[in-house]
Amino acid sequence: MENVKALSRLQIHENLVRLRHSYRSVTRERAEAQSFWNDLLEAFGMTRRERGGAFERPARRASTDSTGYIDLFIPGAASRAQVSWEDRLTWAS
Hints:
The chain is of the alpha+beta class. It contains three helices and three strands. Mean pLDDT is 82; it is low at 88-93.
């Protein structure tokens, strides 16, 4: 199931620099979100599918008991809710 390529720190760094440059001109964050997460995982030598990851997984927040979605969930490894820069700035003000 798990087929993670062993990459050196230098390879990972180079991959992340290329990733940063490839997303530099993105203006539609929501439209590119899933592609970004797939590309980010590949920069570390893994794929979402091989790790059993899922996008938009239903979830219940323990603190409020409200329901929503986790943008990216990888069993035993990570869960990620993506927030746009605009949302962060609105929340912070």
